[in-house]
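sorry to bug you again but im stuck and you know this stuff better than me. what follows is a protein written twice so to speak, once as letters and once as structure tokens for the fold. id like you to explain what the token line says about the fold, in plain words if possible. anything you notice is useful, everything is just below.
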Amino acid sequence: MLFEDLYIAGLAACLPPRVSVRHAVAQGWYDAAEAESLEWESVAVAGDRPAPDLAVEAAREALARSGHAAEEMSVLLHASCHHQGPDLWSPQHYILRHTLGGTIPALEIRQGCNGFLAAMELAGNHLAAAPGRTAALITSADNWGDPLIDRWRATPGGLFGDAATAAVLSRRAGFARLVNVCATSLPELEELNRGGEPLFPAGCSTGVRVDLRERAATYQGEQDLVHAGRLMGQTQRDLIARTIEEAGLTPDAITRVAHQFVGDRQVLRRLLEPFGEDAVDRGVFDFGRALGHTGANDQTSGLHHLLTTGGVAPGDHVMLLGAGAGIAFSCAVVEITDVPAWAGTPDGSA
């Protein structure tokens, strides 16, 4: 959807300390050959810090940077992939209580690793629906360190890193303009993330560990894994082209791409094929290799990284690419209108 006068006014990333892949290999947690072929360097590990507390930290910083008061927020959207705390509990209201307060709606977005971009589209539509709405707060956080998942082996082509990000969308002003967000789905491939596991009782209630590699290996859909991979890649490339065209741009106008931190250089090269031979250089591959796949935080932490390291300048267009279980895809175009004061140093401080 094309947006008019919709801005990113505040952005923050809470990125925990890193554990090196070399250490993980030495401890026997991770395969040495895979580490070398996929070029992972380290993974962010939050220890026993709950994901909602990471989100609260990022949200407070994004709000402080936005120039908006808490009372100007009309909705809070929290995107998550993994367990946030006790079952039958509401992490989004915990985050609301410890950030904005008040009584605005607080919603949890369960679109997997596509969650933040899905939340941006929903928040944009929410703000556009009524003239009195000024701003929205979006958060995302995950800590993959619980006993039911092995961050080093649970997903093909990736390592799970802990992180939180937050953004304030504003109809008033900001350092970047949210130009367009497009989304699509491939529901026929939902079994890729389900595998042969029963729907009831849920594995998390019976102590079954999450192993997405095994689920993919037992995929029993009409299409095999190779064809499924090709279909996902082509669907995402078509979405990229549609999003750019709707925004009135060409691939050459996209300066940088904030993508997911999974796969290897070859996978990224195929995904970014519409951008030409230098496509991988427009991405944030090296940054992601030091952080791990952080669920729905990859794109926003990538944008934050570009801002705080001088990777973008006013007038640049950045594409945000998301994909999540379902299979869900989103694609957004962001135009940088200003580099905020807080992004003046590599650590993001003013």
